[in-house]
Amino acid sequence: MQLTDQTIVAPATAAGEGGVGIIRLSGPESLAFLRRFFTPSSQVDTFRSHQLYHGHMHAADGEVVDEVLAVHMHAPRSYTGEDVVEVHGHGGILIQRRLLDLFLDAGVRLASPGEFTLRAFLNGRIDLAQAEGVIDVIRSRSDAASRLAMRQLDGVLSRRIHEFRDRLLESLAFIEAHIDFPDEEIEPPHLSRVVESLTVVRQDIAGMLARFDQGRVLREGLHVLILGRPNVGKSSLLNALLGEARAIVTEIPGTTRDTIEESLVLGGVPLRLIDTAGVRDAADPVEAEGVRRSREYCATADLVLLVIDGSCEPHHEDLLALEACADRPLLLVVNKSDRPQQTLPLPFSNLPAIAVSAKTGVGLDFLSQEISRKFIGSGEAQESIQVSDRRHREAMLRCQSALDNFLAATSSNPSPEFLALDLREALQALGEITGETTPDAILDQIFSRFCVGK
Q1: pLDDT in tens, 240-266
Q2: Which of 389, 411, 439, 421 is nearest to 161 (CA)?
Q3: Hey, how many other C-beta atoms are within 10 angstroms of the C-beta on 188?
Q4: Are residues 450 and 117 in contact, defined by beta-carbon separation less than 8 angstroms?
Q5: Superfamily (CATH H level) for 156-211+386-434
Q6: Closest Cα to residue 132, out of 109, 110, 157?
Q7: 8-127 CATH, one of 3.30.1360.120, 3.40.50.11740, 3.40.50.300, 2.60.40.790
Q8: What does the pLDDT look like over 66-94, one tens digit per residue?
Q9: What distance, in Å, lies between the first and last C-alpha atoms of the chain?
Q10: Thinking of the domain 219-378, which architecture would CATH place it in?
């Protein structure tokens, strides 16, 4: 994938009404196109970089299109590393379209999705992991997810990957020296130092992979299923967590017959909360279909909140609900704690449990804290270097596998050629994270996720 010398343009703000709308250009002719349509309020001989200028945008026939602030950011001190121009006009679909059309009609090309960030990557201003951090910042749904994305954008992950690559390259240079000079045997003391260094790299990678689920949860969110028999307060719990009457609540068993899904942030974790039909042996075909869907959702849930009524003895239908989610991560929610409570028998007494009252709200904060503790750990754990992207995880797993092969081979009579091959595979995998060795097809796929203008 190569850079072009074309100048591109796109709106940098979302469509719709707003106080300000921004049109962004990037490329060698950005300033020339600005000068064609922009008339400053005062005489400007030379546009100083990163300084806002007040003026008006004019159409080719002299008509005033908008009163704007314009800024020119000289390469390489810009988002893309190229000359960049931004026109800050009034927000609104019509006025932004007219400003955009000025440049398009003059021959500026409309940017593809993510092309500004792609140019920043190709110009070496950011690496691929940082570029992916940009889209994660935009799409983050909680403060914790935003902090994780900003750390990736700032290069925290990239610097760690480069540290690994430097150690691998140093080791590869040592091994290849013995390939170039085959008469020289690899001395055991020298090889042991290589093994020691790469064992540490392998351990560090394993530690980062072990924290993947924490990062994934912050980035993608959790699918949390509320499950239980009818009339234990599942819908009441959903409403209480949302802070609104989203689900219908009645005394009639089987009121909820289909799934109800809502998004929220709970304990710093973005959730997709799913309320389901009560699990029981239903005769009604509609309710039976709802129960079937409840069981089906269990298979993909990250966490099941198994709700029981703590004010009465567990029912055989509570056991049916427990059986439906027996192989999933589970948290027992003992509802109706505002009433006198019954002692929980086995197997419920062995489950991790939180007592709540969906009616009064008591215990909901503890429930939020437990979900957060279970999936994202302590604040210290959140500040460690975390892998949150499945693409990064897959590349690190391949690197780990190549290092395993290398370390296993060094315990026998190693051939330098095979050792070098393992190290090259490990380097190839790490390079895909930061972009040094990423195929163009993968780059296209990554940047197509961006919006136009970013």
Answers
A1: 888 865 544 445 444 444 568 888 888
A2: 389
A3: 10
A4: yes
A5: tRNA modification GTPase MnmE domain 2 (1.20.120.430)
A6: 157
A7: 3.30.1360.120
A8: 999 999 999 999 999 999 999 999 998 99
A9: 18
A10: 3-Layer(aba) Sandwich (3.40)
